[in-house]
Amino acid sequence: xxxxxxxxxxxxxxxxxxxxxxxxxxxxxxxxxxxxxxxxxxxxxxxxxxxxxxxxxxxxxxxxxxxxxxxxxxxxxxxxxxxxxxxxxxxxxxxxxxxxxx
Length: 102
What we know:
Protein name: RanBP2-type domain-containing protein
Strand content: 25-35%
Distance between the termini: 36 Å
Largest sheet: 5 strands, mixed
Organism: Paramecium tetraurelia
Structural class: alpha+beta
């Protein structure tokens, strides 16, 4: 199965016949430098599903047995800076004051 992994403007292709969730996440960490990706799949009706485990990947594969490529979207999880309390950070360093994520 071919996964098109999308994060904002960046896209990477990952191809493996029967990937596990951990293998997909490891690929994202190594190739896209995203530490804690939150994966979602959007079906043809526009409904969004979280992809949290290998079972979720297998369910997508069953539903889309005739389709060879699946888009997986990465949502960056935001965090609140303990130093300046800015809430919308998505990087490892605070986007306002520069403190590292704890």
